[in-house]
Amino acid sequence: MHRKKTGDKNGSTLVIVVCISALLMAFALAMLYTAGLLLARANRRLEQERSYQLAQSFAKVLEEELKADYDKPENAPEKSFYRYVYNFLEGRYGEYDPDHPDETIFHYTAALPEGVDTEKYGTIKVVMYKEANQDQDVDMSGELVKDQSVDEILNNGIARYIFTVEVTADVGGVSYSYSTEYRQMATYEVKFQHDGKNIVWDDGWHEYLSSPEYVVDWNKGNIQYEYQSDKIMRCEFANAHE
After folding, report:
1. Membrane spanning segments where (predicted)?
2. pTM confidence score
3. Which domain holds residue 99?
4. Residues 166-182: pLDDT tens digits?
5. H or E element, residue 153
């Protein structure tokens, strides 16, 4: 009888030991899982930070190219971002349409230099879209009245478009997009007409392709002018929102 109680006691002790061991094992697994989860989150935050820094820094590089000082657009390097944007705004590309984004958002395919290690730095995508500038009434033609300065027309900067440059960086499957909005300020070649004749200004009025001075008879009306949208004399870019 006494031996039976001893066996029962040993059996109970073994069960308790097994239960405690199971609890300790479960606790250890829970701690291991929690540590792994925290490490995964830390790695993801690191990748998020890397993608953010990459997108922002690349956007700044493009902005520096865009704000380079060129006397004329054709003086910019052929493959520069400045020249690309210039052609993008004044070329055949349509304005942004939210109903057809795939057709009105355009990719800057020359963004990545050759030999970029995408395994180390991730991947970069640059897209652009343009919209009509709603802050300015863009009138590409008008009348020059008597006593009005010709320079006011010749040097008039016109902001026809607002455009957005969006840089997306992807690092380890984590992506971040950095967008910057710019305003274009362009000075165009101007065509003048008066009394049915094409005239030009060169320290005085002259009939087109003619040397003698053209005397404007204001009784025959004002001088008509029209900005030549395909002939930009100067083009500058500035942030739309500081």
Report:
1. 12-40
2. 0.68
3. 12-239
4. 999 887 778 888 999 99
5. helix 150-154
